[in-house]
Description:
The complex is a heterotrimer of chains A (345), B (136) and C (95).
Chain A: E1 3-10, H1 16-29, E2 33-41, H2 49-73, E3 77-85, H3 94-108, E4 112-115, H4 128-138, E5 142-144, H5 153-181, H6 187-208, H7 217-248, E6 257-262, H8 269-280, E7 284-290, E8 293-298, H9 301-309, H10 311-321, H11 323-326, H12 331-334, E9 337-340
Parallel strand pairs in A: 1-2, 1-4, 2-3, 4-5
Antiparallel strand pairs in A: 6-8, 6-9, 7-8
Helix pairs in contact in A: 1-2, 3-4, 5-6, 7-10, 8-10
Chain B: H1 2-30, H2 34-60, H3 64-93, H4 101-106
Chain C: H1 8-32, H2 36-60, H3 66-89
Helix pairs in contact in C: 1-2, 2-3
Amino acid sequence: MAGNRVLVPLSDTVTVRQTVSYAVRSGLEDADSLEVHLVVALPHDTEVPEGDEQREEANQLLARARRWLAEDAGDADVTVESAVLGDDEYLFGPRDYADAFEEYADEHGVDLVVIDPEYKPGVTSSILQPLERELDAAGLSYDEAAVERPARHERLVGEGTERFDRYFALFWISFGFYLVLGDPTYWFDLVTGVAVAGIVSASLANVTFSFPLDRIESPIRTVRFAFYVPYLIWEIVKANVAISVVILRPSMPIAPTITRVNTRVRSGLPLLALANSITLTPGTLTVRANDQRLIVHTLIPSAREDLFDGSLERAVRFVFNGRESARIPSPRERGDAEIIGGDEL
Amino acid sequence: MIEAARFWAIVVLVVAGLFFTFVSAVGVIRLPDIYARAHTASQTDTLGAGLALAAVALALGWQQASVYTVLLLFFVFITNPTAAHAIARSAAETGIEPVTADSATDDGSPDSGTGAPDRNSSEPDAGSDVDGGETA
Amino acid sequence: MIPAGVSIEEIFLLAAALFVVLAIVMFYRAVAGPTTQDRLLAVNVLGTNTVVILALLAAGLDEPWFLDIALIYALLNFLMAVAISKFTVERGGVL
C-alpha cells in the first residue's frame, strides 16, 4: 500500500490533541506514507455576524493541529492538508456534517475518517452517535479515535463554578415563585420556601438549563427579553386582528400552506423561544422543529409573508446575541424559506 | 375620574377578550383541518384569555390575588403555544395530511383559492380519511 | 362616567356566562372530532376557557381563592395536552 489518506474533523474539545496523534499512529501502521486532511466544519456561514469570529477560531485550531502533527509525525512521511468546511452552506445537524465530510472525502480521495469521540462542532451538543449513523448511511468508513478522556484542568474548574451558577439561578427562581404564591412576610413561608427551593435546585438544576449560563450575558438577556415581550404582544395583536377578519368573513378566504424555514438561532432555549413566538402569532403554527429547521403551517398569505420576512427571528437573535447579530438578511433573502407540499410533513 | 377610567378599561378588555374567544370558537367550528384549527383554537384563544385575565387583574387592583392573575396570564401565554405545537406535531406524526390551498378546493371546503401560492405542488388523494373536517 | 346601576361584578358575571356559551359551542368540536387531535385541541381550548371563567368568577363573586384552582387547572390542562399528544404518537408506550 502506497499511502493512507485520512480525514480528521476537528473541534475544540478536551480530546482533540489525542485524536490527532491517534490518526497519525494508526495511519502509519499499515502504510509508509500518510496524508492527513484536517478540517473544521463551521456551524454558521460567514454571512452571520458571529461567523467571522468562528472562522478565526477555526483557523487557529487548524494551525495548532498542524503543529501537533509535525510533532507526532517525526521523520515519517506525513503530508498535511487543511480546510474549513461549511463556509458556503449552513450546517444544521449530523446529516449535514456527514454530507459535508463525504463530499470532501470524495474530492480528495480520502478513505478513512478519524473522529474525535468528543466531537462537538460549534455550539450544538455532542453529535457523535447520530454522526456515526449518518456516516454509515453515506457509506463512508470511519474510526473512532482511542483516547483517554479528561484532563484539562481549567475546564473542570470552569464546570464547577458553572454548576454553582445553575444551582444559584434555579434556587432564586423557584424561591421567588414560591414567595409569589405564598406570603413573603410570614416566617413559615420563608423557611419552607428555602427548603423547597433547595430541593428543586438540587434535583433539577441540570435538567433546567441545557446551555451554559454566563454571569454577564444571562442577566442582560433577561433584560433584553423584557423589551421583547411588548414587541411580541404587539405582533400577536396585529396578527390576531388580521386572522379574525379572515375567519369572520362569510367566504373565509384562507390559503393554508406548509412552509419550511431554516432559522439561524441556536438550538435549546433560543429555538424554543422562536418556535413558541411563531406559534403564538396566529396565522403561523410551528408543526415541527428539527434542529434549526422549522416546519411551519401558515393559514393566510400575509402571515406567510411576515414569517418569511423574519422579523421575529431577528428579535429572538437580538434577545440572545445582542443588537449586532440582529442585522441579518431575512429568510427569504437567504433562500432559507420555501413552501413545501403537505405530504412532506 | 380614575374609577371611571378603570371601569371603562375593564369593560373594553372584557369585550375584546370575548370577541377573540368568539373568533376562536368560530374558527374551531369552521376551519377545514386540525392544523388550521390549531391557529385559532390555541392562539386567538390565548389572546382572548389574556385580555380577560388582564381585566380581572385590573379589577382586583393591588393585592395578592392580582399577582396570581398575572402569573396565570404569563403561564397561559407560555403553555398554550407549546400545547398547540405538541398537538400539531402529534397530528403530523400520526400521518394526518394538512389541507393545503390546492387540495382544499377539491374536497369542497369553502372558497380558498384566493391567494393560492405559486408552487404548492402535488396534492393528490382527496380520499385520505381525515380531511373531511367540513362534513361532521 | 360609570353608568348608574351597573357594577363591575355584574359585568364579570355576564362575561363568565358568555364564556360558558362559547365553551359549549366549542364543545361541538370535541364531540365531532373527527380525529383524536381535533378532540384534544378542543378539550385544550375548553380548559383555557375554564381557567378564564374561574378567574372571572373569582372577580365577580369576590372569591380570590378561585384563582388557586384556576392556576392548578391551567397546569393540569397543559400537562394533559402534552401527555395525550405524546401518547397518540407512540401508542401504548410509556409517557
